[in-house]
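Late entry, evening session. Most of the bench is empty. Finally got around to the prediction I had been postponing all week. Sequence below, unchanged from the version circulated by S.P.
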Amino acid sequence: MKRVLICCCFILISWSMDAQNLSKKDIAAMHEIMAKQQECWNTGDIDCFMEGYWKSEELRFMGKSGVTRGWKQTLERYKKGYPDRKAMGKLKFDIVSVEALSRKKALIVGKWHLTIEYGDKEGYFSLIWEKQEGKWVNVLDHSS
């Protein structure tokens, strides 16, 4: 009985440790999506930028003006806050860390910088990513 219990504990511990690992392919996929978002933003295409987000009413975006729930509402928020190419400026992401939360969830922390004609803006972000149907999507964005 002791052996079975020890064996079960070992399996649970190794599974738990394995769940905290992300493959290089998964990390590269998230980086690639963020690079595409940056490119979309810099060409003035907010619709393209939003492709990296979870298309769900459960998507959450948190910023200085509060919490926005839903993909469509987040898209509308971006379009209202950045009505034209000039207001959008040039976006640059700097990823500080990528941390596995599970096999299918990750936390990305980083900095954003907007170069804008009338004065640059910058801040930090924490993003929760989830792998759904083999594709990584941003399910929660907290940007300040």
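Two things to note before I forget:
Residues 4-19 have pLDDT under 50 and may be disordered.
The two ends are 53 Å apart (CA to CA).
Will write this up properly tomorrow.
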